[in-house]
Design goal:
By secondary structure, this protein is α/β, with parallel strands linked by helices. Helices cover 52% and strands 8% of the residues. Strand 1 and strand 2 form a beta hairpin.
């Protein structure tokens, strides 16, 4: 700057849309560049894309879909009556319901004629005029794997597109259809609720509304898995409800269930693509790429038999050529992956060529499924020794599979584990421990104040009754409970903290002014408590206000004095204060929810006991004796902490059930650790906050009692 003349860029903001005009001056030219910052919804969409990408990149790695290179995905337009005419999906000569996403051309009938692979699948997804895609196939055909790879391709394409076009590329999100009641919730309402529960980006005040706006604007595309896992009538209701959904859809289902559903309710404009069986040559190449350069004779025999087959898909239900039983058994990605898991580089894999032992493809597949758990938990050179033995792992997974099959579900919700066995032993144990540990200080306190036989009897009965109440609270968790999966930032928001501070200061100040007047005690006499005393004893009220105005209100439910405001009538206040100052964007998995309950919610429950002790103890210590106040404080802490922190905690109930199951069924004591370990070994997978078996066939096989 010289002579008060500024020779740099000048910026100013104009208009209602935060448009920034930047003017560059020079001696010869004058340039104006218009920079438009991202709209709030654009920022949310981009952050959701980042979180979904990280989530499924990790999950795809655990499912071994990325490294080493997966089996090729091939598809054709299905000839089954699972959808309408192709012309309805491509909208040739008619107005398209969805324009093609930037970088992808509109799909035509000619492009669909010969089918294709994963690249062509993304072109169909992004260019289909109807925006309705069905991925179908027989069991274990790799439909979900294809959907996951398609999702990652869609995210990669979105990342490559320029910022101006990116707003027209929807963010793909994969959800399970289990648990949706179309009669009670519309597709948008249900999807918004699921996004709110599974992604912390939508936690807190206004989160559900942000999710709804993304869905209504078509900024999200839903990949919906598990249509074949719900009952027939519910499937039809779901398809009908999805008819008017304002976003792109990819539905994943077994072919048989898709055809049955289409007889009652057909998704208008949907295109049904059938995932093709794996070709024998592709299977052989996949296996050889993972073997040493000079494979063992057993592996050479098996891959040689596959290479002798024609280079065309083998129908698993009609193997009609020599050696085609093996090719038909290995015509799906699940069986191929299991084969590589079960047999080592020097394993006797050629035993599968024995037609007498394995006369059908099902026999081969069952053999591989029966050895999957043992293979996953067998020691491997260069890897840490498994924490659990193959026998323990198989016994546990068989028990879990049988229980889920009995419940008619594929979703393993860890907070439902307390209902897997009779609660009687736990009730008795909790009752005894609570009576002895929590009741003893109360009995001693009563005896010290009134040392009579009647006092001892009454205090003992009170301890027994209190222990039974704690046990009843614990037993209530044996019935399936809704999951409270709020995170730390949902409980401790800027609004809840300020509400707590305001409540504390207001009540403390009012006591400072009112108590001396009521008791006619001058403030400055020796008998009056100091001013700080009232702020100390009212601090617990501020703590309870933080919880009841946030998402931790259930923790203080039932606590004397502190539970005021924890009822449903306080929901409007709670919504007003539940906007997190900083959003911790990530997907919520089973382990995250478990850690939240066994960590933060348990700690806050015990802290509730401390709060009540701090509220009661000092008052009694000042008005009576310090020892009396201390004993009252200990008693209040034990009973309230046990009720709020232990008896009402889903993670504690699950941990105690795991101990009981260990004694009754021989399952691991640390059940959650085992489940996460099984996921790491690709026997389980995570879908949101629930676990599922790697494949429905694995659950079905493990649920069958051993002969």
């Amino acid at each position: 700057m010289s002579g008060n003349v500024f020779h740099g860029p000048a910026a100013f903001q104009v208009g209602d849309h935060n448009t920034l005009d930047v003017h560059h001056h020079s001696h010869h030219t004058h340039h104006t560049h218009r920079i438009t910052p991202q709209a709030p919804l654009d920022v949310v969409a981009d952050e959701l894309a980042r979180v979904v990408g990280a989530q499924w990149q990790e999950e795809a790695g655990l499912r071994r879909l990325l490294e080493p290179a997966p089996l090729p995905v091939r598809w054709r337009v299905s000839e089954r009556k699972a959808a309408g005419r192709i012309g309805g999906a491509t909208a040739e000569g008619a107005r398209a319901r969805f324009v093609a996403v930037p970088g992808v051309s509109q799909v035509t009938r000619e492009q669909l004629r010969d089918g294709g692979g994963l690249g062509e699948l993304h072109a169909v997804y992004g260019g289909l005029a109807s925006g309705r895609l069905l991925l179908i196939g027989p069991p274990a055909a790799g439909k979900t794997a294809a959907a996951v790879l398609l999702l990652l391709d869609a995210l990669a394409h979105r990342a490559r597109i320029g910022a101006e076009d990116r707003v027209r590329v929807p963010v793909p999100v994969l959800l399970s259809l289990e648990g949706w009641d179309p009669g009670a919730e519309s597709a948008v309402d249900w999807a918004a609720g699921r996004l709110t529960r599974e992604y912390t980006l939508f936690h807190g005040r206004g989160g559900r509304e942000r999710a709804r706006r993304l869905l209504e604007a078509g900024r999200v595309s839903l990949f919906l898995d598990g249509l074949d896992e719900v009952t027939g009538r519910l499937r039809g209701a779901m398809v009908s409800a999805l008819e008017t959904a304002p976003f792109r859809l990819v539905l994943v289902s077994r072919a048989r269930e898709a055809v049955l559903t289409a007889k009652k309710a057909r998704l208008g404009g949907a295109l049904a693509l059938e995932i093709q069986a794996v070709r024998p040559a592709d299977t052989a190449a996949y296996l050889l790429n993972r073997l040493p350069a000079d494979p063992s004779p057993a592996w050479r025999a098996l891959t040689g038999r596959l290479l002798d087959q024609p280079d065309e898909p083998v129908q698993p239900d009609r193997p009609d050529r020599p050696g085609s039983v093996l090719a038909a058994a290995l015509a799906n990605p699940l069986a191929v992956a299991l084969l590589r898991d079960v047999y080592a580089d020097d394993g006797p894999v050629d035993e599968l060529l024995d037609a007498a032992r394995f006369p059908t493809p099902t026999a081969v597949e069952n053999h591989l499924l029966d050895h999957a758990v043992a293979a996953a938990y067998s020691p491997r050179p260069g890897l840490p020794r498994p924490r659990y033995s193959p026998e323990t792992a198989e016994r546990t997974l068989r028990f879990i599979a049988a229980r889920l099959t009995q419940d008619g579900s594929r979703d393993l919700r860890w907070w439902h584990i307390p209902g897997w066995t009779g609660p009687g032993p736990r009730i008795i144990g909790v009752w005894l421990v609570a009576t002895v540990v929590c009741g003893t200080p109360g009995v001693l306190l009563a005896w010290s104040l009134y040392p009579t036989r009647q006092t001892a009897v009454l205090s003992c009965f009170a301890a027994i009754w209190g222990g039974s109440d704690i046990a009843r609270r614990h037993a209530a968790l044996s019935v399936p409970q809704p999951l409270s999966s709020a995170g730390r930032r949902d409980i401790f928001t800027r609004g809840t903290i300020w509400a707590g501070i305001t409540q504390w200061l207001f009540v403390g100040t009012m006591l400072c002014l009112c108590i001396p007047l009521v008791l006619s005690i001058p403030l400055l006499t020796d008998d009056a408590p100091p001013l700080w005393f009232w702020y100390v004893v009212t601090l617990p009220l501020g703590f309870s206000e933080v919880l009841v105005t946030g998402r931790g209100y259930q923790i203080v439910t039932g606590a004397p004095v502190l539970s005021v405001g924890s009822g449903r009538r306080y929901d409007s206040v709670r919504e007003r204060h539940s906007s997190p100052a900083v959003v911790d964007s990530r997907s919520v998995g089973p382990r995250d929810v478990w850690r939240h309950h066994i960590g933060l919610r348990l700690f806050l429950g015990l802290l509730t006991g401390c709060a009540l002790a701090l509220y009661i103890g000092p008052i009694l210590a000042w008005t009576q004796y310090p020892l009396v106040g201390a004993m009252f404080a200990v008693t209040a802490f034990l009973w309230t902490g046990a009720a709020a922190g232990l008896a009402g905690n889903l993670a504690v109930a699950t941990a105690l059930t795991a101990v009981q199951l260990h004694a009754e069924e021989g399952t691991p004591v640390r059940m959650m650790h085992f489940l996460e370990d099984a996921r790491r070994r690709n026997l389980l997978r995570a879908t949101g906050p629930v676990y599922q078996f790697r494949h429905a066939r694995l659950q079905e096989r493990l649920a069958v009692p051993r002969e």
